DNA sequence: CTGAAAGCGCTTACAG
DNA sequence: CTGAAAGCGCTTACAG
């Protein structure tokens, strides 16, 4: 069958209507489950659709109705399991509403992100869930407003005049610091990595505030490499300072994984020689040894919340902007002990 | 601005044409970078597009040309980092060709997969990359053919009359078995889990063949729970048999992670008391201790290959079906030693 | 409940 | 190089 013939082969709503002996309008009503159609007629049309192998053409419909049933999701990357879980939550909710999600990664590059937003607009997405690339200018907010495109920010924010769903990083940090302090730790380091963005800043501020409110020195901020593979070898950075920490809070799952490995490589026993607290607590956290005490931010739930928010935003663009912050919980396992 | 006014606001190609004092046809030619347009005219039109904030409407264009620039990707789940890496490869290549990918997960449920395929057809996807849900009937192949939809199977296959990209599981298994045998192991177990599908079968067959060709007993197939969280507690299954293995090959990354943790919980030293080999070797593999010797299947590369194949398939539907199998490599680290 | 008609935003011959 | 026109597959009043 040549592509010429194939084209003619396409079954259209008009074909269905003729086959069922009704008008195109009626067939269209059946399609959209209108109550205006009699049940006998309805059945006849539905049979015709089945017989002919009719497939609804959403693209054509979209040209009339302003709804593409497509939403976009832009994340910095896909290989970090944290984002994979986030996406899983997004897909779950969006899929359940009958919509479809276009996925793209920005690589934390602003120009790439700009290109992706344009491409998504060209595809007429009904809205997008955006985890803004690091260093995104806040002017992006004005652009988005001018485009009149529903957007919810996830995990990171550039403007609170736009919907935002994230985690309560400040509380998470306080939970971690309080727990370590209760064990008797005073020299607590915060092991960070990656580019600076709102979530980065919130964690750092949260750490600082939590330390200060306990009268502890909040200045032990130690930077690790961005790539997971390089973190373990950089473990010595923890001990290069005049004062040596007795406990370390990790910026995220990757840092926790890397340091957990690196400390073992140094011959240290985690929980005895040094206490370690993870952050994000993705599924793998359960599976490393010693079991990692970790602050859970709930990426799947955040993805679900963001998707629901976007759906509501699309339904009612006049809604005031909302800010949803998921609670964090400290999962106490085995990686912390008293200082020695 | 009400939604009424907004609709009128939409800038169309006709607006651009008028603004630039050309016909709609000419504006369209500029859009598609046709050489038929003089450079002076081209510039004028491009300026008009910028001035007016014109956004190309791919959906409208699609109604005429049979190309949506959308491709679909269906995977069993997103939280398994293996699939996340696969997707990353797919998105990379598809994005680079200017197309966009619709993402969905089947949850390894055949009906869900069917629904997703229909939804994607309604969106007029140019093709889909499908990791078939476990227990997919091979009749799906006939359906897909009847729909005349370009599909490449990835990781799992239901028919070789359709493009397929996967890993060379048989060789991977042989590499693992040969390595263990060279260390002196004879009682080697294969720790499997999850539903049965072609990739499962190929690994099991590969294990069996590799064992047999070395004159070893291939019957130690041990089933573990599907959920990562439950694997560690099930570690005892390794020792419930009359003959106790001295080495274990893991079905995939999840099993490796779970058993690595579980063996440590049992107080065993991996590499001394028992040798362990992982499979898939996703990014995390580098970060567990003891370092896991593992067969790498290269999910990112597989995703890239699948995307390229689909692009070629779309360009030329008459191409004979192809079967691409990515080489595996054994990464020797620290989790294996001599039997004792 | 149904039919005829207009229109969504583009592309594509066809004439000039 | 340009203009006028038809058509892609749908939805939506409007009249009956």
TrEMBL record, chains A, B:
Molecular function GO terms recorded: DNA binding
InterPro entries reported for this sequence: HTH_LacI (IPR000843), LacI/GalR-like_sensor (IPR046335), Lambda_DNA-bd_dom_sf (IPR010982), Peripla_BP_I (IPR028082)
UniProt xrefs under CDD domains: HTH_LacI (cd01392), PBP1_MalI-like (cd06289)
PROSITE patterns: HTH_LACI_1, HTH_LACI_2
Domain HTH lacI-type: 11-65
Keywords: DNA-binding, Transcription, Transcription regulation
UniProt cross-references to Pfam families, sorted A to Z: LacI, Peripla_BP_3
Identification of the protein by name: LacI family DNA-binding transcriptional regulator
Species of the source: Sinorhizobium psoraleae
């Amino acid at each position: 069958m040549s592509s010429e013939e194939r084209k003619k082969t396409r079954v259209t709503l008009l074909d269905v209507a003729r086959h069922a002996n009704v008008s195109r309008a009626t067939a269209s009503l059946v399609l959209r489950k209108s109550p205006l159609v009699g049940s006998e007629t309805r059945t006849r049309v539905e049979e015709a659709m089945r017989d002919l192998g009719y497939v609804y053409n959403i693209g054509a419909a979209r040209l009339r109705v302003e709804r593409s049933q497509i939403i976009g999701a832009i994340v910095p990357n896909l290989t970090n399991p944290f984002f994979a879980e986030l996406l899983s939550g997004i897909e779950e909710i969006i899929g359940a509403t009958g919509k479809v999600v276009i996925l793209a990664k920005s690589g934390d590059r602003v120009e790439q992100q700009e290109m992706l937003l344009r491409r998504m607009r060209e595809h007429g997405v009904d809205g997008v869930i955006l985890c803004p690339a690091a260093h995104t200018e806040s002017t992006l907010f004005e652009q988005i407003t001018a485009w009149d495109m529903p957007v919810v920010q996830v995990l990171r924010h550039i403007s609170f005049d736009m919907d935002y769903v994230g985690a309560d990083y400040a509380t998470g940090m306080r939970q971690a610091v309080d727990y370590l302090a209760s064990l008797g730790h005073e020299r607590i380091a915060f092991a960070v990595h990656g580019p600076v963005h709102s979530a980065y800043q919130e964690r750092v501020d949260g750490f600082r505030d939590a330390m200060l409110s306990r009268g502890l020195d909040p200045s032990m901020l130690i930077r690790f490499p961005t790539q997971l593979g390089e973190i373990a070898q950089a473990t010595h950075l923890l001990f290069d300072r005049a004062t040596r920490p007795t406990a370390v809070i990790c910026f995220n799952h990757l840092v926790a994984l890397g340091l957990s490995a690196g400390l073992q490589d140094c011959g240290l026993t985690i929980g005895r020689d040094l206490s370690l607290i993870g952050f994000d607590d993705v599924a793998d956290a359960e599976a490393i040894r010693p079991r990692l005490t970790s602050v859970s931010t709930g990426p799947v739930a955040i993805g679900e919340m963001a998707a629901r928010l976007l759906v509501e935003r699309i339904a009612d663009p006049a809604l005031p902007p909302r800010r949803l912050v998921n609670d964090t919980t400290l999962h106490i396992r085995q990686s912390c002990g008293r200082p020695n």
